Amino acid sequence: MLLPWPQLLGACLVVALATGIHGAVGFGAMLLAAPILKLIDPHFVPGPMLICGFFLALMLALREPDAVDLRGVSWALIGRLPGTGLGVLALALLPQALLGPAFGGLILLAVLLSASGLRLRPDRGTLFGAGLLSGVMGTVTSAGGPPVALVYQDASGARLRGTLSGYFIFSTAMSATGLALGGLLDTQALLLAALLLPAVVVGFLLSSRILPLVDRKRTRPAVLALSSAAGIAAIVKSF
User: Would the CA dihedral through 125, 129, 130, 134 be positive or negative?
Assistant: First the structure.
């Protein structure tokens, strides 16, 4: 199924803008693009966006390879595995109306605590917990970046982007593999992803122009703003 060109152009513009912001901050593409793409055509989410997210994360990690905290990525991914399982369980057992407000509220609470001066150290326990929550949230709401980003909110822009990109390379690959095994990543999803990939490249190039703004001691406000948006979106989406 091919989309009419106005819808396809609109989808590409959304993806370019969302990936541009993601490329500058380190996360947010799924959070910003997925709700609008779902309105344009539900088939864009989650498969095509996951594939686009994988390639965006790969490009970002290659742009700043020395900034990736491999130890942090490892512990977050270890937490992501059981978190994904818990997310699937939550979808199966809990009312959908409760899931969005619950996880959105958790993210907003974390943002408020961070704004109040609380700092999370990126040690093994914190990273495992962030990966666990990220796995649950990513499965339930499609926005799994905020928990890990909040742990690294005081890191440099390059460190935040590099580490999150390393994390997203593996986490999006895991999610896409799960969809493929479940028969939910078909030829149509691959075609839609291929149509969106040029917009991902445009967004990646655009992000290079935004980097100086984020790196000028604005990393933490950007993380808190996007995380707040994720929490509010999760709550609103439930209604």
Answer: positive
pLDDT in tens, 32-50: 888 888 889 988 988 898 8
pLDDT of residue 14: 94
Residue 67 burial (C-beta neighbours within 10 Å; 0-12, 13-18, 19+): buried
pLDDT of residue 138: 77
Average pLDDT over residues 122-137: 91
Q: What's residue 34's pLDDT? A: 85
* pLDDT value of residue 119: 74
| DSSP conformation letters of 170-194 | HHHHHHHHHHHHTT-S-HHHHHHHH
Residue spans per domain, the chain: 5-238
